[in-house]
Fold this protein.
Amino acid sequence: QVQLVESGGGLVQPGGSLRLSCAASGSTFSMYTMAWYRQAPGKQRELVARISSIGLTNYPTSVKGRFTISRDNAKNTVYLQMNSLKSEDTAVYYCNCFYTQRHYWGQGTQVTVSS
């Protein structure tokens, strides 16, 4: 069982930045594939960023160049740095772990981009 706890959400103006953090349980964090997803009201949950156990990353076109995912294996933590935020980035952001053929999810953190 993997437990995930997100933090760092909040209200930010368009063009601003936020950094989300996700702390994971377990002694094999370095082996996890970690990701961030988001879900806006009335929309399906979508992938925002993914980082493999060896540090390979991928992003959808909508956030590429603005968002950066990183991990600190010593702290069992994955981060999502979000820059140049837009109103359409408003959503609940979820941390995800894929390990031993299972997906684990955090409780989510709200990000609101508004003036």
Q: What stands out?
A: The radius of gyration is 13 Å.
